[in-house]
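Let us work through a complete example step by step.
Step 1: write down the sequence.
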Amino acid sequence: MAAGVQLVGAEVVEAIPTAVGSADVTALVAERIVRELLTGIALRRQDRSWRSRSAR
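Step 2: predict the structure and record it as tokens.
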């Protein structure tokens, strides 16, 4: 999804992996969201770089 939108920025507001009973689910979800956002940004940059090279 992040590769398909013009993402400007993102922020993880709160992740408390040590909360009682959380079983680190909050930290895992936050990590996945950040990883997917960064992957989307990288794919978008790679696609832009590939298009500029193929236009030459």
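Step 3: interpret the result. Residues 16-54 form one domain.
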